[in-house]
Write a structure and sequence with these properties.
The structure holds two protein chains of two kinds. By secondary structure, chain A is mainly alpha-helical. Chain A is about 80% helix and about 0% strand. In chain B, a hairpin with a 2-residue loop joins β4 and β5 (about 170-175). The chains are: A mainly alpha, B alpha/beta.
Chain lengths: ~450, ~230
């Protein structure tokens, strides 16, 4: 009974925060307060136990990786890469699409999506402004960037929240996740990238006139004429990151948790680049996301201790007697709930259910966890509002004042993204299901 | 180069070209952008292409027309600027605050690097700039300010610089924002108001700039740059 109340409060909280994003912090914190109050007073749960149910390692890793992203942003690495992409694309639309999507994919593998997007998008917008793109290309290009972000984030255990949650809770090791997820994500990314390329070629759209292309390229060179990578920031950052990467690979053998490794790495970086690190900690860290996730985890912790999640897992194993059907149902539920509630709430809630399903169903845990991460990625790519990157990209495009060749204001909104989102969701979800079914 | 080849490069929609270089005009300056355009056309279609494009484009970008008809190649213009900027640099060494109205990167890139001890405050001539990107191209002694801050930066060791395009006797063209910065209140606050003359005489009305009559009343000193 208490479990049903707790889950109702959580669902209501998630729906309200999705409907009123401008008030999402107050909604989630209120939801966490109500949940904890109910759990402590009516459910006889100890507050200490509730706190212990929060995966603090995950929050530390998110904080640490956020610091690294901010540091790399200050080194001007992202904008330099984006400028290089513009030059290498020779002002050809298809190459712009392919190169910028690829850059976003690989950056998202290691660093915070939002920071990468914030720094790469202005460069992309500059070159599109200079060349003059059609509305169709704008929609295609930015849609592909969002999906590339999501897939890159799912490809490594440090790329995005779901993967970090899996690694941080000890559900799967760093190396195993990388071995299982990276190849499938690269494959899915390539498959999705082929579609716009084929579509664009079939449409027979022409590139800009030679003079406009030359001017666009020289414009980019001049607008970023003295912008160089700050090696005094980049080299120490890369060095420490590589050390952390190596330690994550051998984490199990040396007996250090991923969170502690991240803590050590950030600590070392703060000593080496103390001035920049101080400024980043004070002004550059996304504490709002950390607070949001903490509130979410507290709610999930309350629910987990009430036994409601075990009950749901039990129901699923009874209803879906076939193991493969059970896992597919779990993954599809995860994908759909991500599309509605976003990755954080979805993964945080589904993971404990997945634990129980794996135990009861006797299925290979690592495969299911990676499948879950892929489903979250699919859900994040379904609707523009499903991942934070979507509204951010929409906002940046609107503020840029980008106009199309036809002279109209370029649009990138929920409806522009939807057709691409449906296809991306289908490909990633089906790809994830095939991956899991082939291994079970 | 064949007629057809030249035409394929220069028969473009002028609005498309203006869209392509609008960020350059805002963040590099009209004259600097005109030089970039002239250089690009020169490389792609040589002199024939440049003169053909002037006919198409001068209505939308008159300063480019003036640059193209000056008869100077882009390399020559840059060389002239580099030579003539040295006396200006010597004059400015005594000033700790240098307020510049408008951006012309072809001048400012050199000026800001040759005077690292001075603080430069640049008032952009366009509102549609990416401030972080503009600042990233300059050394740390450069700041972007709003025109409303101009009075607080005045003083005995402060100088204000702006540009006068296509000066013909007492008439010239300036960035519209310059009008707001050279009133009698500003003139009395700064040690000097320096005008940098870029191109002399004009064959066409620079419709995207503001006409300035009695130029010498605005500026206490003038330097001919190009």
């Amino acid at each position: 009974m208490i479990g049903a109340v707790l889950i109702s409060v959580m669902i209501a909280t998630l729906i309200i925060q999705a409907l009123i994003p401008a008030r999402k912090m107050i909604v989630i914190l209120s939801g966490a307060t109500v949940t904890m109050t109910i759990a402590a007073t009516l459910g006889n749960q100890s507050i200490l136990n509730i706190y212990n149910g929060v995966p603090w390692d995950v929050l530390v890793i998110l904080l640490g990786l956020g610091t690294f992203s901010s540091l790399f942003a200050r080194s001007r690495l992202f904008s330099s890469l984006a400028v290089w992409c513009s030059r290498a694309s020779q002002g050809k639309y298809l190459l712009i699409l392919i190169m910028f999507s690829s850059i976003m994919f690989f950056l998202s593998c290691a660093l915070n999506n939002l920071t990468a997007l914030l720094l790469v998008l202005p460069v992309l917008l500059s070159i599109l402004k200079a060349l003059g793109a059609t509305q169709g290309f704008v929609a295609l290009c930015f849609s592909m960037l969002i999906v590339a972000c999501n897939l890159g984030g799912a490809a490594t255990p440090i790329g995005d929240f779901p993967a970090i949650l899996l690694m941080g809770t000890g559900s799967i090791s760093f190396v195993r996740y990388l071995i299982l997820a990276f190849p499938i994500c690269i494959l899915l990314f390539s498959a999705i990238l082929v579609l716009p390329a084929v579509y664009y070629n079939r449409k027979g759209s022409e590139d800009a006139a030679p003079l406009e292309r030359s001017l666009a390229l020289i414009s980019m060179a001049k607008l970023y004429r003295n912008v160089t990578i700050d090696k005094t920031i980049l080299y120490p950052g890369v060095g420490v990151f590589c050390i952390m990467f190596g330690l994550w690979i051998i984490a199990g053998r040396i007996g250090l948790s991923p969170g502690v490794i991240c803590f050590l790495g950030v600590g070392l970086l703060m000593v080496i680049k103390n001035e920049e690190a101080e400024d980043i900690v004070r002004h550059g860290i996304d504490f709002e996301s950390i607070l949001f996730l903490t509130a979410l985890f507290l709610m999930v912790s309350c629910m987990a201790r009430s036994g409601i999640l075990d009950y749901i897992a039990g129901l699923m194993t009874v209803y879906f007697t076939d193991t493969k059907m059970l896992v597919c149902a779990l993954m599809i539920c995860c994908g759909i709930s991500t599309a509605i509630f976003s990755a954080g709430p979805s993964m945080a809630t589904m993971l404990p259910i997945a634990h129980q399903v794996i135990l009861k169903g006797g299925v290979p845990g690592e495969t299911v966890y990676v499948g879950l991460a892929l489903s979250v990625c699919a859900g994040s790519s379904f609707l523009l509002t499903a991942a934070t990157a979507g509204p951010l990209a929409q906002s940046i495009v609107e503020k840029s004042g980008l106009t199309t060749r036809e002279g109209r204001r370029a649009k990138f909104d929920f409806m522009t993204f939807l057709p691409f989102g449906i296809i991306a969701y289908a490909i990633i979800q089906i790809g994830g299901l095939i991956f899991v079914l082939a291994r079970i | 180069m064949s007629e057809a080849a030249v035409a394929s490069i220069t028969d473009v929609d002028p609005k498309g070209v203006m869209r392509t270089i609008s960020a350059l005009i805002s963040e590099l300056g009209a004259f600097s952008a005109a030089l970039v355009l002239h250089d690009t056309v020169y490389r792609l279609a040589h002199r024939e292409g440049a003169s053909r494009l002037v006919e198409n484009l001068a209505e939308y970008f008159p300063l480019y027309g003036e640059v193209a008809e000056s008869g100077l190649s882009p390399a020559e213009v840059e060389q002239i600027i580099n030579e003539r900027i040295d006396p200006l640099i010597e004059q400015l060494r005594d000033f700790s605050s240098i307020v510049v109205v408008g951006i012309e990167s072809v001048i400012l890139d050199r000026l800001t690097r040759k005077l690292p001890e001075s603080r430069f405050y640049i008032i952009p001539h366009s509102e549609t700039i990416e401030e972080e990107r503009v600042l990233a191209n300059f050394p740390p002694n450069v700041h972007l300010i709003d025109v409303r801050e101009i009075m607080r930066l005045g003083g005995a060791r402060s100088v204000l610089i702006s540009y006068a395009f296509c000066r013909m006797e007492e008439d010239a063209f300036i960035y519209p924002v310059t009008f707001r910065t050279v009133g009698p209140d500003v003139r009395s606050s700064y040690n000097r108001i320096i005008g940098l003359n870029i191109l002399s005489g004009y064959n066409r009305y620079l419709g995207d700039m503001a006409p300035l009559y009695s130029t010498s009343q605005f500026f206490t000193n003038q330097f001919r740059i190009v």
